[in-house]
Design goal:
Blueprint: E1 13-16, E2 20-26, E3 32-38, E4 44-48, E5 51-53, E6 56-62, E7 69-75, E8 78-79, E9 84-85, E10 138-139, E11 162-165, H1 167-171, H2 185-188, H3 191-200, E12 204-207, E13 211-213, H4 219-222, E14 232-238, H5 250-264, E15 268-273, H6 290-298, E16 301-302, E17 305-309, H7 324-339, E18 345-348, H8 366-373, E19 381-384, E20 404-406, H9 408-418, H10 424-431, H11 435-438, E21 447-449, H12 459-462, H13 498-516, E22 521-525, H14 556-574, E23 596-599, H15 608-611, E24 618-623, E25 643-648, E26 654-657, E27 666-672, E28 684-685, E29 690-693, E30 697-705
Parallel strand pairs: 11-12, 11-22, 12-15, 15-18, 18-19, 19-20, 20-21, 21-22
Antiparallel strand pairs: 1-2, 2-6, 3-4, 3-7, 5-6, 7-10, 8-9, 13-14, 16-17, 23-24, 24-25, 25-30, 26-29, 27-28, 27-30
């Protein structure tokens, strides 16, 4: 290397300025740092970083530009008992790399900082084997991209419908997506993929992790990979294997192109992000990046035993946002995806772990404070998975303003109600926006409502299995939750029984109808609208195959389910009463009627004694479309139709008598989950008229006569 200039401590990472590249790496406890450059033949050149400012080691290399591959070797004490694990024989990934060129090649070298000999104290002695052959290279990148007139859709929470999906799984089997694009960012940006999402009616895609992923070391031995991707190693780099065009910077351009294409269709992009732990595992895990750069800074170590890691995540380690430089990395990463890649929001995996200050989950933690005051991040969608695996980690309803939450209470209660295990009172609370959880400082849209997600049974499996079938994961069926709250409708697994099949189809429609007509933000687990099955596997995290990929070859029942889902989403989008901006008050307003009114089978108001019945499984709900519940951008009240929803989770049909004439003079059918082929207006009912509600069904009636 002919010239090495001092460079700057900020920004961190590799920054090209058209004349050269500035390199900067944080390490508070290192004694020496070497930048390693690689040519096309893989030859390694070392550059000593002699400048150190605010714990950032830095230099500037004139003439070095896009396409240059690099990594780091970091020197310091190897003293696991003191929390330090420096080992310069191990090549390390830059935490700020914008591009990482491929996977960890586990068979090529020992990527552990010690010799893994299966003894409990093996990690106490350092290994001296160089592992450069196994570690992917970081790549200097030109971040320029022609966004043209791209603008964030900025869809209000009141109009948001989230579709959780996987970049790879969504298009891997899609017959209309070009074969070379299937399973890639380009595939998700293709016309068939976007046309499908638009026709479904969703407004936002929530992508399972796309930060660069490192598989766990044992997966290749089993012929498996980390399909879900909750194993991040590069927080500013899009995962290389999801790119169709290349891995030397092409993946970044392809990712940006995907965001641009989705925005062009009015669809937001939300990223599932994993800042609570990394791919490096526990004290016996590999050394890929953070552990070798500054283990004591990047990780939460056990205070009285810093050889070991605090583990609030179940993965072996917990990232350390209490350290200012680690918190800066998280914030820089988030801002980068918004400002440079135009993403619209984030779902934070195990978000409670990020809010632990000393030990407890703290609503006033630095993590929340920094986001709250940030002019960029405070304006995007923020979704918390409001729990972790540590003590006191279940924090549903306890996140601060600006945040929405995956409502695990909603999921559990709705599942229980439709299998006959939850009373109507609990179900009604979830249907009405979970005011018990969110009304103290947030609106109904703080609740992200979901029945299923990537983790657990698909919707089709939820009504077909009561026991998980996870043998394919190679863990003897021990993995995955046993708390599925599922009902197989009388037969475990696949069946040819037409009555069971019909009941399962009806139950799927019940769940989807409940989801679309609940106050809050609905999240549809991608593929549920297609009747997707994982054959009872409720933890398909390592199944990058047809078990997880969407099957687009639809038979007639699955076609009907898709059509019914589109119908539900269209109703929600067309009628603001189903996405009220206020919690129901139940008090009589200017119209002489309450905004919402709950009634019994006899058409009379549910009493307190009724609500206290644990065996109540059927009830009705009147929604007053003339009550002030939705407001336009200028503050004007937006009126809607009025509706009756009749829920019956009983195993037998129930005869309902409609409410009196003051609620409406004439009602007509809008849809029935028991008879999904009936068109709107198929029949009409007068006040106090009778409606037979089939077992396990929802009936929606629309007011057509005052």
């Amino acid at each position: 290397m002919s010239e090495v200039w001092p460079g700057r401590p900020f920004p961190l990472g590799a920054t090209w300025d058209a004349e050269g590249t500035n390199f900067s790496l944080f390490s508070e406890n290192a004694t020496r740092v070497e930048l390693c450059l690689y040519d096309e033949q893989g030859r390694e050149t070392h550059v000593e970083l002699t400048e150190r400012t605010a714990y950032n080691w830095h230099c500037y290399l004139p003439g070095v530009g896009p396409g240059q591959r690099y990594g780091y070797r970091v020197h310091g004490p190897y003293e696991p008992a003191s929390g330090h694990r420096f080992n310069p024989t191990k090549l390390l990934i830059d935490p700020y790399a914008k591009v990482i060129d491929g996977p960890v090649r586990w068979q090529s070298a020992n990527v552990f900082p010690y010799v893994p000999d299966d003894t409990p104290d093996a990690d106490l002695e350092p290994d001296d084997e160089d592992d450069a052959e196994a570690i992917p290279r970081c790549v200097v990148v030109n971040q320029a991209f022609d966004w043209e007139d791209d603008r964030p859709p900025r869809i209000p929470w009141s109009e948001t419908i989230i579709y959780e999906t996987h970049v790879r799984g969504f298009t891997m089997r899609h017959p209309e997506v070009r074969e070379d694009l299937r399973g890639t960012y380009g595939g998700l940006a293709s016309a068939p993929a976007i046309e499908y999402l638009a026709s479904l009616g969703v407004t936002s895609v929530e992508l399972l992790p796309i930060h660069h992923i490192a598989d766990e070391s044992f997966l290749p031995e089993r012929g498996l990979t980390n399909y879900w991707g909750y194993s991040s190693i590069g927080y500013l780099a899009p995962h290389a294997s999801y790119a169709a065009t290349g891995s030397r910077g092409e993946q970044l351009r392809e990712f940006k192109g995907m965001v641009k294409a989705l925005h062009g269709a009015g669809i937001e992009v939300i990223l599932d992000v994993v800042y609570n732990h990394t791919a490096e595992g526990n004290h016996l895990g590999p050394m890929l990046s953070f552990r070798g750069i500054d283990n004591a800074s990047y990780y939460r170590l056990v205070p009285e035993d810093p050889r070991h890691y605090m583990d609030f995540t179940g993965t072996g380690n917990s990232f350390n946002p209490r350290h200012p430089s680690v918190l800066r990395l998280i914030m820089d990463s988030l801002r980068y995806w918004v400002t440079e890649c135009h993403v619209d929001g984030f779902r934070f995996d195990l978000a409670a772990a990020l809010a632990r200050e000393l030990y407890e989950v703290d609503r006033l933690s630095a993590f929340f404070d920094v986001i709250y005051q940030d002019p960029v991040l405070s304006q995007v969608k923020l979704i918390a998975e409001p729990w972790d695996l540590g003590p006191g980690g279940y924090q549903v309803g306890k996140f601060p303003p600006l945040w929405t939450e995956w409502n695990g209470v909603y999921r559990d209660v709705v599942r229980d109600f439709w299998r006959g295990q939850a009373p109507a009172s609990a179900f009604a609370s979830r249907l009405a926006g979970s005011s018990d959880l969110y009304s103290h400082d947030r609106d109904p849209f703080a609740s992200i409502n979901f029945i299923t997600c990537h983790d657990g049974f698909t919707l089709g499996d939820l009504v077909s299995y009561e026991h998980k079938r996870n043998e394919a994961n190679g863990e003897g069926g021990r993995d995955g939750s046993d708390d599925n709250r599922s009902w197989n409708c009388g037969v475990e697994g696949p069946t040819d029984d037409p009555e069971v099949a019909a009941l399962r189809a009806r139950q799927q429609r019940n769940f989807l109808t409940t989801l679309c007509f609940s106050l809050g933000v609905p999240m549809l687990s991608g593929g549920d609208e297609l009747g997707r099955t994982q054959l009872g596997n409720n933890n398909a995290w390592c199944q990058d195959n047809e078990l997880s990929w969407y099957d687009w070859d639809l038979d007639e029942p699955r076609e009907h389910l898709l059509a019914f889902t589109r119908r539900l989403i269209a109703l929600r989008r067309e009628h603001p009463i189903f996405r009220s901006q206020r919690f129901f008050q139940g008090v009589v307003g200017k119209t002489g009627l309450p905004d919402a009114w709950w009634f019994r089978q006899d058409g009379l108001k549910l009493t307190q004694r009724d609500w206290e019945r644990h065996d109540l499984r059927s009830f009705g709900l009147f929604l007053n479309g003339q009550a002030p519940s939705y407001f336009g951008v200028h503050g004007e009240e937006i009126r809607d139709d009025s509706w009756l929803l009749i829920f019956n989770a009983e195993p037998e049909e129930v005869t309902f008598r409609l409410p009196s004439r003051r609620f409406g003079a004439r009602w007509e059918l809008e849809l029935s989950t028991a008879e999904p082929d009936l068109e709107a207006g198929a029949f009409h009912i007068s006040p106090r008229g009778e409606l037979v509600s089939p077992s396990h069904s929802v009936t929606l009636l629309k007011l057509v006569g005052q």
